[in-house]
Backbone:
């Protein structure tokens, strides 16, 4: 928390020198990124339900709503919001298939993030050794590593709960595995997957890099492909343990490590907070606008109570 407050202070000190044009372009790139991801998800659902109408605008709204909630609520609470809204948007769909469709998107994202982590670890010496993780000024990793027994108990509890939920679901949800298999229909058709899903996700990652590029310029940090990739590596690590909204704190800690000696700490903290504020604010505004337009209220829990239960 102290590191985040230091970053906010550094950001406020440099606010007057921030170039607004690159920030505006970064916001446009962030909106383009969200659009690409929603298109990929829509195409996964369309392949799962070829006989249903899967409207692009409805899935776009559902995806934005989830992103908006995730921007301010930890533990990926927004994922539940987008799943509920997407199921409402596809007539006759089931929660099992809609939830499983998000796993299809994870295939590309995990591959891309893993490739970046391997690149950073093997060629850039950018990642801290495991023994140094507890010393990083980050709540997420530091707390877990400083309390190994609690971390092990938490992990064991999650695994046990996952197994129990899986057993319960397989026994109570009719055709459970068939519905999961239905979500992966597009993967069984590689040309369609590459054309309608992977291509959009590749564009999504491209716009992530463009967003970072413009924000580096706005805060006076040297622009280079290497720096863009290192920033993205820090952002990817911050999402591994989402105990804080948008991974705030963890990302700042890793940025300070990967750019050690190359960029001054005040400049780097100002950039980190500015980047986080830009993306979080953009996501929150478009997300809650999507909730208001879709549900005619910002109280999405009220609409959930009106949604008929369906697995």
Residues:
């Amino acid at each position: 928390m102290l590191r985040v407050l230091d970053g906010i202070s550094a950001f406020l000190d440099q606010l007057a020198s921030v170039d607004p044009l690159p920030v505006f372009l970064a916001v446009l790139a962030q909106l383009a990124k969200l659009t690409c991801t929603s298109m990929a998800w829509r195409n996964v659902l369309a392949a799962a339900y070829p006989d249903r109408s899967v409207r692009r605008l409805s899935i776009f709204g559902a995806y934005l709503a989830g992103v908006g909630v995730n921007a301010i609520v930890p533990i990926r609470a927004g994922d539940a919001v987008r799943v509920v809204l997407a199921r409402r948007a596809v007539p006759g769909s089931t929660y099992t298939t809609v939830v499983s469709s998000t796993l299809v998107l994870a295939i590309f994202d995990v591959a891309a993030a893993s490739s970046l982590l391997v690149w950073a670890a093997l060629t850039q010496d950018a990642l801290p050794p495991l023994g140094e993780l507890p010393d990083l000024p980050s709540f997420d990793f530091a707390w877990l590593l400083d309390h190994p027994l609690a971390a092990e108990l938490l992990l064991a509890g999650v695994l046990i709960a996952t197994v129990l939920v899986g057993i319960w679901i397989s026994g109570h949800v009719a055709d459970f595995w068939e519905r999961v298999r239905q979500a992966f229909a597009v993967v069984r058709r590689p040309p369609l997957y590459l054309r309608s899903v992977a291509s959009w996700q590749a564009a999504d990652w491209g716009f992530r890099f463009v967003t970072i590029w413009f924000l580096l310029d706005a805060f006076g940090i040297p622009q280079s492909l290497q720096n863009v990739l290192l920033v993205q590596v820090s952002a990817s690590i911050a999402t591994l343990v989402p105990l804080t909204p948008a991974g705030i704190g963890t990302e700042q800690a890793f940025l300070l490590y990967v750019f050690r000696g190359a960029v001054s700490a005040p400049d780097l903290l100002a950039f980190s907070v500015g980047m986080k504020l830009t993306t979080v604010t953009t996501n929150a505004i478009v997300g809650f606008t999507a909730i208001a337009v879709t549900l005619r209220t910002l109280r999405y829990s009220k609409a959930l109570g009106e949604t008929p239960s369906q697995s």
